[in-house]
Amino acid sequence: MNAPAIQIDKSAGLPVYLQLAERIRLLVREGELKIGDPMPTVRGLAVELGINANTVARVYRELQAEGLLRLERGVGTFVAEGAGAPMKRADLRAIERAADRIIDLAQGAGMNAFELSQFIETRWKEVRRVKR
Amino acid sequence: MNAPAIQIDKSAGLPVYLQLAERIRLLVREGELKIGDPMPTVRGLAVELGINANTVARVYRELQAEGLLRLERGVGTFVAEGAGAPMKRADLRAIERAADRIIDLAQGAGMNAFELSQFIETRWKEVRRVKR
Amino acid sequence: MNAPAIQIDKSAGLPVYLQLAERIRLLVREGELKIGDPMPTVRGLAVELGINANTVARVYRELQAEGLLRLERGVGTFVAEGAGAPMKRADLRAIERAADRIIDLAQGAGMNAFELSQFIETRWKEVRRVKR
Amino acid sequence: MNAPAIQIDKSAGLPVYLQLAERIRLLVREGELKIGDPMPTVRGLAVELGINANTVARVYRELQAEGLLRLERGVGTFVAEGAGAPMKRADLRAIERAADRIIDLAQGAGMNAFELSQFIETRWKEVRRVKR
DNA sequence: GTGGTCTAGACCACG
DNA sequence: GTGGTCTAGACCACT
After folding, report:
1. Average pLDDT over residues C86-104
2. Chain B neighbors of A108, CB-CB under 8 A
3. Domain for residue C9, yes or no?
4. Using an 8 Å Cβ cutoff, are D49 and D8 in contact?
5. Confidence of residue B1 (pLDDT cuts 50, 70, 90)
């Protein structure tokens, strides 16, 4: 598909706009969105995700400030030149495999998605602290 | 240590009270907090984390409603009998090893903690969807 | 006065949020707002300027991203440490005197405020182009 | 040159059509465009400035309504008789000198073009307020 | 039809 | 009472 599906969890606690921004950053880093690719329109994406157009516009604006997107009035929104190179495919695959494994383990131990993600964020910060 | 260290990221977007509640649930599941163990006082924990005492009290109340904590007026707060058995040590160790590995891979690929946790949450939901 | 008056021209063509952001940046650079000073509340300033609270909030958020303001949930908004040192008083005075002079000349020649500011912006860019 | 260079800053916040209209008015007042002089064609100017032809056409129409331009179908666009007399050369030179001076001061103090023009507009309005 | 700005007002997190 | 998020909807600038 040309425009990869973007999912949002409106009841996740994390603000919708942060989820959406992060999802787009990830699609760019994964190479699913390449420099110059057109983004969905503000209103179109809003309808697709069941959120308000202002929320999408806010995300696009912030990503433009980051240099990741380029907003052209009257034309559309595109992945900007400043988006940087995507991850290497091999790296991405390795992370995907590792993710599938830990998800499997966590499910076996009775954790849910939120618990696992929190666990990993906490552990990340602990590891960094130890390394210092 | 009597009370395991709890970390909160006030600038993480996720509400403080959700982070705190989740952190305590995890400590119980990991077996670091056992049934009957005393929790830090509301005020003490609030000071330690640099957040408002009301926020801590709210979390303790919610966890009491869940049956995870037991608030004894005038005495203190304790891990309740309803907390359930902790995870098996082997499971926990396996998840920790898997976490360290994926954190390593993600850092190597230039991701940050938030990106990785979002990636895993998204992947979890995708996997579940595929399995259906 | 503790909180310097901020003025907005809602019919100026330039978006209100840009005017407001620039006005605040200038007050900081002029030294009228110092590091640690409290800003008006979002809602209070909105009422004072006759604009919507969301517009003020957007400006505060953008200035926080710039490192100029510090927003504390439940507390208030303050001039941040990253605001940098204000201009020297002598420089400021010299610019004020020069401004008064050119305003006088422009008024004598029948220009209005918008024309003069456009003239200066254009000339600035021409000068820079020549210098290159 | 036949048609003096016109500059537009598409990222300046101020609508392009306002910038363009103001720039033309100024060229007439400065005497760089005299009564009867031909204006660039709509399409030519649009291409030169990298904006849409509709936008240029709209500006020409507005300036015609003001009596500044005269559109002759099939022939071209010209500076109209109603354009009025240009500023005195001495006045213009004095303003230019004053502008160069204040630009110099502002650059020395670390301001940018937008900041200076906003500063002057604000000061203009303050001065008028004081004089009343 | 695209993005941009602004409003009015609801509800939430936090102190 | 403070800032934060989100909605619904209006109107504008531009292609």
Report:
1. 95
2. 91
3. no
4. yes
5. very low
Neighbours of A110 (CB within 10 A): 11
| Same-domain status, D76 and D115 | no
Q: Are B34 and B84 in contact (CB under 8 A)?
A: no
Model confidence pLDDT, tens digit, residues A32-90: 999 999 999 999 999 999 999 999 999 999 999 999 999 998 899 999 998 988 999 99
| Structural domain range at position C46 | 16-83
The answer to whether residues D104 and D52 belong to one domain is: no
- Whether D5 shows a pLDDT value over 80: the answer reads no
What local confidence, expressed as pLDDT, does residue A2 receive? 53
Number of domains, chain B? 2
Neighbouring CB atoms inside 10 A of C113's CB total 21
Per-residue model confidence (pLDDT) at position D1 = 45
Nearest CA in chain A to B127: A100
D10 touches chain C (CB under 8 A): no
Task: Let me know whether A65 and A112 are in one domain.
Answer: no
Q: How many Å separate Cα B5 from the centre of its chain?
A: 11
A6 located within any domain: no
- A55 CB less than 7 Å from any atom of strand F: yes
Q: Which of A100-109, C1-10, C84-93, C99-108 has the lowest mean pLDDT?
A: C1-10
Q: Is residue B3 part of a domain?
A: no
Same domain, D75 and D23: yes
pLDDT at position A1:
46
CA distances from B96 to A95, A119, B57, B99 (A): 16, 9, 30, 5
D4 touches strand F (CB under 7 A): no
Chain D CB contacts of C101 under 8 Å are: 98
Query: Which residue's CA is nearest to the C1' of nucleotide E8?
Result: C52
Chain-chain contact of D99 with C102 (C-beta, under 8 angstroms)? yes
Which of chain D's residues have a Cβ under 8 Å away from the Cβ of C118?
A: 19, 22-23, 26, 117
CATH code for position C76: 1.10.10.10
- Tell me the whole-structure pTM to 2 decimals: 0.88
Q: Is B71 exposed, middle or buried (0-12, 13-18, 19+ CB in 10 A)?
A: middle
Residue C53, CB, strand E, below 7 Å: yes
Tell me the per-residue pLDDT of D72-103, one tens digit each, with 9 for 90 and over.
Answer: 888 899 999 888 888 999 999 999 999 999 99
* Cβ C20 to strand E below 7 Å: no
Distance (Å) from CA A27 to C1' F4? 26
Same domain, D122 and D102: yes
| B59 and B97 both lie in a single domain | no
Q: Which of B68, B83, B98 is the last residue of a domain?
A: B83
Of C12, C83, C17, C9, nearest in space to C56 by CA = C17
Q: Do chains B and A touch (3 or more CB pairs under 8 A)?
A: yes
Q: How far apart are CA C68 and CA A59, in angstroms?
A: 21
